[in-house]
Amino acid sequence: xxxxxxxxxxxxxxxxxxxxxxxxxxxxxxxxxxxxxxxxxxxxxxxxxxxxxxxxxxxxxxxxxxxxxxxxxxxxxxxxxxxxxxxxxxxxxxxxxxxxxxxxxxxxxxxxxxxxxxxxxxxxxxxxxxxxxxxxxxxxxxxxxxxxxxxxxxxxxxxxxxxxxxxxxxxxxxxxxxxxxxxxxxxxxxxxxxxxxxxxxxxxxxxxxxxxxxxxxxxxxxxxxxxxxxxxxxxxxxxxxxxxxxxxxxxxxxxxxxxxxxxxxxxxxxxxxxxxxxxxxxxxxxxxxxxxxxxxxxxxxxxxxxxxxxxxxxxxxxxxxxxxxxxxxxxxxxxxxxxxxxxxxxxxxxxxxxxxxxxxxxxxxxxxxxxxxxxxxxxxxxxxxxxxxxxxxxxxxxxxxxxxxxxxxxxxxxxxxxxxxxxxxxxxxxxxxxxxxxxxxxxxxxxxxxxxxxxxxxxxxxxxxxxxxxxxxxxxxxxxxxxxxxxxxxxxxxxxxxxxxxxxxx
Length: 506
Prior knowledge:
By secondary structure, this protein is α/β, with parallel strands linked by helices. Helix content is 21%, strand content 29%. An eight-stranded parallel β-sheet has the order 29-28-27-26-23-22-31-30.
């Protein structure tokens, strides 16, 4: 006796409850068969969108022989959420294993099946299909039920059912401001100051962003010394931005003829520093907050004004007036070659026309050029007889006797040896003591204002350095200083000023 595996009359509903709806009732049919058709019917109500797949059969022996029907596509569904859960409602109950074997979600572009979680509900009449991971955005998938699906009554789905859908595009997260730190600014009475146009906001994705701010009042230069609070408003941020401005009493230092701050800070690439601090005014305020009002800025490289893509002279001239208006002593320096003595001398004279002093930087490229050094120094001194000139070279002069030290000693007013004990890997004391001995040994008798490094040095070494009580000390450099040094400068930097700077040659 032949036994037939009976096919059950299929009534399948595929839907995602409460997640989307269709605008119109639609019936889509294939014309491949005139005998019968499989059809997908899209219906909608206010809560649920359903896709109904239905197989029709011949009236003759319908239980045993069901005419073949084609898969009929209900049309693509677009903008499906990335975590969409599908529900398939059947006319007969099934086992979990049967559902797991027959219900799949497939990537349309490559035919790969994606991992899903299959569960049953409503007395096993409903199959719930959940993606293990979110669908990819803007991607096409096929939800399919194959003909191997067998009900608990041992009846099989006659024709496969499928549903094409496309997921929504990825959504760019909307960033929001989570906080804006309070701002503290300290200026001296009489200083020029402008409230900032932007502030730094902490964003919800962990980044920082400059945002525009509107203050409740403007800065009044006539305010007396004291602390004042300004409140700012930022679009999209409910809290107020607070800026505390402290105006210090104007300190009028004792008048010392032709003298000024004894700590001179070197700057290599001025524009980089202006950019780093967010503008020239902020940079000036930072220097002042560290007790620095004497800066030495690079002006040239040999007989040219540029080097490494930087126009040193142009950057200097752009900001020199800002420093002068803020009360700074502004010096210049240049790395020397002396390959074209007259051209380099003229450039140094030009630097002195625009600054308060000049420091030569003769290193290996000046070695053995005694005659050229004499020519350059003689031209500069003849054109600028009262200019303050210094020279800054190797710390241990006796190790580099090919540098024409005697020429610089003859024309300059002070020596500023580059005593970078950290880079030398010497102890601070050994480096300074040996420096002094070597300059003395070569008969170099001009005042020594050491230039010390502002990075990778121990805090206690800086404290011990103060015991030498040099009249003036140079700091190399603003470009490189680290937090250890700036902390020292804030708390102990006044110890560098044991003498006073020479504003004019005496």
